């Protein structure tokens, strides 16, 4: 006797989900990461995600995927349902609220403080943008940091008054408490020592 199951597509919506393909949602990932990845899934495979990963009744799935329902709302229900399985209802609600805050341009409630030695700065308190990203651990190398900067995924500042830096040769003036963001999910607050 053989049992076959459908293969779940990954977060790219095309290829099978797999860690080696970089399009997976890990069951041991923090609630916020799981929720964010679910929200990034294209609209097309949502029915498959609802069917294979949740226990929502088919009538509810049909209602959520109806043409008059915003796909973002359906994804939020999907994300909360999946996150709740691994982290509980309150973690799912918190992850959804945090995602909404981030999507509206607000900073998360808890920003990690990362220590930066003052001797990494020049005499005027500046550091090259790629070096800042690497020193804060937001990217593993200055090459990756340069790529992020060129793609417009690097900004500094507090709240909606942040400034996007696109020049890989930019010198960033660093003060204690500066918030640095790389991409949509990596964020750190600089603590000078």
Q: How is this structure best described in words?
A:
The chain has 193 residues and is of the alpha+beta class. It folds into two domains: 31-103, Tyrosyl-Transfer RNA Synthetase; 113-192, RNA-binding S4 domain (Structural Genomics Hypothetical 15.5 Kd Protein In mrcA-pckA Intergenic Region, Chain A). The protein contains seven helices and seven strands; from the N terminus they run αααααββααβββββ. The longest helix is centred in the middle third of the chain and has 17 residues, at 71-87.
Instruction: Profile the largest sheet.
Output: 5 strands, mixed
Structural class: alpha+beta
Rough shape? elongated
Number of DSSP helices? 7
The low-pLDDT segments are: none
Question: What is the mean predicted local confidence, pLDDT?
Answer: 89
CATH architecture of the largest domain: Roll
In spatial order, strands of the major sheet run: 1-7-6-3-4
Top CATH class of the largest domain = Alpha Beta
The helicity comes to 25-40%
Q: State the order of secondary-structure elements, H for helix, E for strand.
A: HHHHHEEHHEEEEE
CATH third-level topology of the largest domain: Structural Genomics Hypothetical 15.5 Kd Protein In mrcA-pckA Intergenic Region, Chain A
Gyration radius from CA atoms, angstroms: 20 Å
What is the strand tally? 7
Tell me the fraction of residues in β-strands, as a range: 5-15%
Distance between the termini: 65 Å
């Amino acid at each position: 006797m053989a049992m076959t199951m459908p293969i779940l597509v990954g977060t790219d919506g095309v290829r099978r989900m797999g860690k080696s393909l970089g399009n997976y949602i890990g069951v041991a990932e923090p609630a916020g990461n799981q929720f964010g990845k679910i929200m990034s899934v294209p609209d097309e495979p949502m029915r498959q995600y609802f069917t294979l990963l949740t226990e929502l009744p088919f009538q509810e799935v049909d209602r959520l995927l109806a043409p008059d329902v915003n796909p973002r709302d359906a994804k939020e229900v999907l994300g909360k349902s999946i996150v709740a399985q691994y982290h509980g209802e309150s973690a799912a609600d918190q992850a959804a609220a945090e995602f909404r805050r981030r999507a509206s341009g607000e900073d998360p409630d808890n920003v990690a403080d990362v220590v930066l030695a003052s001797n990494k700065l020049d005499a005027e308190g500046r550091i090259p943008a790629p070096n800042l990203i690497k020193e804060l651990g937001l990217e593993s190398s200055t090459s990756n940091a340069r790529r992020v900067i060129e793609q417009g995924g690097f900004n500094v500042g507090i709240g909606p008054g942040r400034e996007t830096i696109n020049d890989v040769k930019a010198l960033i003036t660093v003060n204690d408490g500066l918030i640095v963001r790389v991409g949509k999910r990596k964020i750190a607050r600089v603590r000078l020592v």
